[in-house]
Amino acid sequence: MSDTILVTGGSRGIGAATCVAAADAGYSVLVGYTSDADAAAAVVDRCRSLCVDAAAFRGDVSDEESVREMFAAAEALGNLRVLVNNAGILHQQMRFDEMSVDRWRSVFDVNVIGAFLCAREAARRMSTAHGGAGGSIVNVSSTAAYLGSPQEYVDYAASKAAIDTMTIGLGRELAGEGVRVNAVRPGVVRTDIHASGGEPGRAERVGAGVPIGRPGEPGEVAEAILWLASDAASYVTATTLDCSGGR
Ligand code: NAP
Prior knowledge:
By secondary structure, the chain is α/β, with parallel strands linked by helices. Helices cover about 45% and strands about 15% of the residues. The chain has nine helices and seven strands; from the N terminus they run βαβαβαβαβααβαααβ. The longest helix is centred in the middle third of the chain and has 26 residues. Bound molecules: NADP nicotinamide-adenine-dinucleotide phosphate.
């Protein structure tokens, strides 16, 4: 039975590219998503066309019961070896002093509590202290964690800084228990997420000023995620990898 990878937010953008690259590497793939069933089904089809087992799971990463069910669905595919904590949201660009508490709660619920819930479920299943066979967690952070996203989404940036800190702490906690925990910090990548902030063309605008001269593609981030997940990164844990064109 092949190893299974669970990718939250696997239906679009960076998550979808990660699912397809993982299928190409031979993993069975669980595609997590929350609303766009057609997009998730298309990713499942692409994975199956690469001759691996794949399934989609609809649920909200910020809901504890939903996360438990998602992990059960992943385990039904086979030996769960990798969690990619990729699902993330941001809201309309605005100044910090205009933001509502509801907005902050929504961003932290998905980006922080959601990632924590998934990482906890993974630790309970993968850690040798729990009788697991080991594994790897890759968190998808952002360069926003150190840039702060002024005038845009300071709340989103702060949620990603929390992910960086969780990566260090959980990585060290699980290092002797067969589980590596790392994060990738993408810079500006061409996906739909920028439309959620009210600027669909943001990747092109910001990308022009990136040292490498362009925005990133989802597949370029997927490669970094899969390397961290793989045994090729066997001595890498509790750290973050910037995949940002030098930004
Ligand atoms: P995207 O294209 O907007 O896709 C987001 C994915 O997350 C979708 O599959 C969506 O599912 C899923 N999702 C959203 N809320 C969810 C929830 N509550 N529960 C479960 N799934 C949920 O985003 P992306 O740009 O690929 O971003 C992926 C990750 O990279 C995020 O963590 C983001 O913060 C990070 N990142 C992105 C960039 C960038 O420039 N794109 C830069 C730095 C970091 P549905 O389609 O079903 O809604």
